[in-house]
Specification:
- This protein is mainly alpha-helical and 358 residues long.
- The chain contains 14 helices and 2 strands, in the order H-H-H-H-H-H-H-H-H-H-H-H-E-E-H-H.
- The chain has helices at 2-22, 30-49, 55-79, 87-116, 120-124, 127-130, 134-143, 146-180, 187-190, 201-220, 222-229, 231-252, 280-300, 317-339, and strands at residues 256-257, 271-272.
- The chain has a two-stranded parallel sheet with strand order 1-2.
- It is globular, with a radius of gyration of 24 Å.
- The N and C termini lie far apart (62 Å).
Length: 358
């Protein structure tokens, strides 16, 4: 939900930056960004509920917009990622392909931006940079037109909205899955899905309302809002490190069985390799690198952005992360341990016809 809130915030402030680029008299206000933030969340809710059946097709369109939008921005600069089928195989491959595509396109975009940025000082001191979007000034300096810079920025804005849609889809499915496992209060209601479409409407509402409430923090303090949104980095990497560390331990101790010869893969305490994995020493080496990289990013995510920070520029994410951990532990000890019994394992039984002797 922190990622959803961050996506909505970026969309809102990006729209403000475009307005300021085209109207020098416009003065951005925090509540402007919050209202635009809410509008972004409403778009994500609409697509995740009313158009929920079309979500897989919409995500394919998002990929096309992402790739085509890359070239639409790059060329002007230079010249002038639970409904997935076969998830155990398709999801890992999609993660790898997404990383390769984004890495290659991101590197190309960095080269292009560095090539056309001739005066970094003026870019960083521009009004749009004060809102956190100096690249809009780079667009304007490159094409020499507010309309052209706006068109290029709109492409990025559309991709950011697509990111908010995906973030809401992910957050709502996580809430639904945790409620199905009886890990949330009122799990009987939250775990319900809409008849006919299988859309977790209650989970979508909870995720979107939570994001909108977080958006209210921005009206009072942008620094406090950034602290909450910073959970998107620390929480993600904490989850990566924990799962990767346990996987590494199981690898090194031989605690994961081969799928061959194992009839019941749902037996408690038994781990079986899925269809997508790296066996042997190469898999262990990749696992060690992943844990080490995650630890470096996790630790440095708590550092302030500048030397000798003051109150407004201090990084309080360590405080927010610790508060969430303490709350989660207390929540489990006081209530959840009586209801939450672990993930629900869904098993599909195939009936075998009886043999009739003749």
């Amino acid at each position: 939900m922190a990622i959803l809130a961050g996506s909505g915030y970026v969309c809102g402030t990006q729209i403000e930056a475009v307005m300021q680029l085209n109207n020098a008299d416009y003065v951005p206000q925090r509540w402007h960004g919050t209202l635009l933030f809410w509008a972004t969340v409403l778009v994500a809710v609409f697509i995740n509920t009313i158009l929920g059946r079309l979500l897989p097709a919409i995500e394919i369109v998002m990929l096309l917009v992402h790739v085509l939008g890359f070239f639409a921005v790059l060329i002007p600069l230079v010249v002038m990622a639970e409904e997935v089928q076969n998830a155990s195989v398709n999801v890992p491959w999609s993660m790898l392909v997404t990383t390769l595509i984004n890495g290659a396109m991101g590197f190309g975009m960095v080269i292009a931006v560095l090539f056309v940025t001739t005066d970094i000082t003026s870019v960083l001191e521009s009004p749009v940079a004060a809102l956190g979007f100096p690249y809009i000034q780079v667009f304007y300096d490159s094409v020499g037109s507010a309309g052209g810079a706006t068109a290029m920025t709109v492409i990025l804005l559309i991709m950011t909205v697509c990111g908010a849609i995906s973030a809401l889809a992910t957050a709502s499915r996580l809430i639904w899955a945790f409620a199905r496992d009886r890990g949330l209060p009122f799990w009987r209601h939250v775990s319900k899905v809409q008849a006919g479409s299988s859309i977790p409407v209650y989970a979508v509402v909870i995720a979107s309302l939570t994001a909108c409430v977080i958006g209210l923090i921005n009206i009072g303090s942008a620094a406090a809002f950034s602290v909450v949104v910073s959970l998107s980095v620390t929480s993600l990497y904490a989850s990566y490190i924990i799962t990767e560390s346990f996987l590494l331990y199981r690898r090194c101790t031989g605690g994961i069985r081969s799928r061959n010869g194992v009839e019941d893969t749902t037996e408690p305490g038994v781990l079986v390799w899925g269809p997508f994995h790296l066996p042997g020493l190469f898999g262990i080496a990749v696992n060690v690198f992943a844990v080490g990289f995650g630890l470096v990013v996790f630790v440095f995510s708590f550092f302030p952005a500048s030397y000798h920070p003051y109150v407004a520029t201090m990084n309080y994410s360590v405080l927010m992360t610790a508060a969430v951990v303490i709350f989660s532990v207390l929540y489990y000890v006081v209530w959840a341990r009586r209801e939450f019994k672990g993930p629900v394992v869904e098993v599909v039984f195939h009936a075998v016809p009886e043999r009739v002797e003749t």
